[in-house]
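Continuing from the previous page...

OK, I double-checked the sequence for Lipoprotein against my notes and this is the correct one:
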Amino acid sequence: MQLKAILKGAIVAGAMAVMGAGTALAQACEETQFSAKTGQTYLEAETAAMANKDWATAIGKLNQLRNGELNCYEEGAVIRLSAYIKIEQGDRAGAVRDLLDAINKGYIPEDQRAQTYYNIAQIYLQDENLTQSLDYMKRWMQAGGKPDRSQKWQLAVLYQRADNNAEAVKWAEEVRREDGNKFDQQLYDLLVFLYNDTGNQAKLAEVLEALVERNPQERKYWDAIAGNYFAGNEERKAFEVQKAMYLAGLLKTEDELMRIVNFYNRFNAPYHAARVLEKEMNAGRISKTVERMSLLADFYQVAREHEKAIPVIRQAAEMGGGGAMYERLGASYSEIGKWPETEEALQRALEMGGVKDRGNAWVRIGQARFERKDRAGAKEAFRQANNAGGRGWLAFMDSEEYTSDALVCFEVQAALLNVQNEEKICKKLAALGDNMPEGCKTVDARIEAAETKFNDTPECKRAAQPV
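Thanks. Re-ran it with the corrected sequence; updated structure tokens here:
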């Protein structure tokens, strides 16, 4: 143990005086050596203690010395040897009393006083008395002690354990400066804790980045970086960290993967959200449910990737999505002009029930028939619709002279229907967070504008009137 070695060195120095070698003089003691008789007894005590570990003999010899006449130099040596013996026997409190007694009586030379304070600090540390240990570490430095790298590290740990993290940071940074380019995992882990506790986000980020660079597969550092950005309300940066974690394969659970999906959506990247969601569902890391398939389709549709959305919607419908999902499938087919598929999907939706807008479904069926030159079937569907869209189509078909007007109205109506369909998707996405894709942020205004345009378009008004 380092402390025992230090005390042993001090005692050996005292023993040299017995052989005639002088030592530094204490302020209150002018004696420099043992008397012949006393010196022999002391050497016997020291030999018993340090060479033979014969504590009983050593203590007996010391008591013999204490019972006699001792000069100040001899008493100081006895006290130091007594402290050494008590340390060896585990009596740390007694050792501290001896060392303080030697200091108070002036038996510790000035040039050894700082080291004695350091020894006392280490004894208190062994007893887990952090307050006293730190107090004597301060006295050691005030007496001229210069901490080396190991002692600076000890001070950092002591202050952290004593809940004085501001002071702990100072010493930990001293250690880091002394280390230079040398990397110490314990030091960096302590700095992460201290910077986080003291709220120094900038330094925390710098240390965490260094740790990630050195240990790219260590998940806890990535999490800490993301948490640091979240704490600073820098969600975009937190997202970039999470994205890097995903690309590095560090995110494993379904919740973690869905968080990445939702992040992409929140930051106006629905296509990337769709690609990640689809990839992870195909890999089995995200469960493939009707709800998730519907969400995937939402992402593709908001990103205007309708051809990618259709297979997803069809699969969701086949998985049990009901009439509403077939209604959505038909609407998607109509958006890309696949008319037979449009009618088939919408007819099935009407048969199954659960259709949200039967009138709109019939309009789309009518449009699908019209595009396939089934004018009679189209008129029947438009009459079934029994809404403005259906009536507009009927007016268009019934009056050639109003063909131009009806075409204009159709375009306005189609634009309105498309915006209404987008609004339905955006309402579903709203549950994912406040930051909606840009298209969703303007959908209400665009619906209002489309409705106003539809209602105010003269061609639509005329097309709605009987021929």
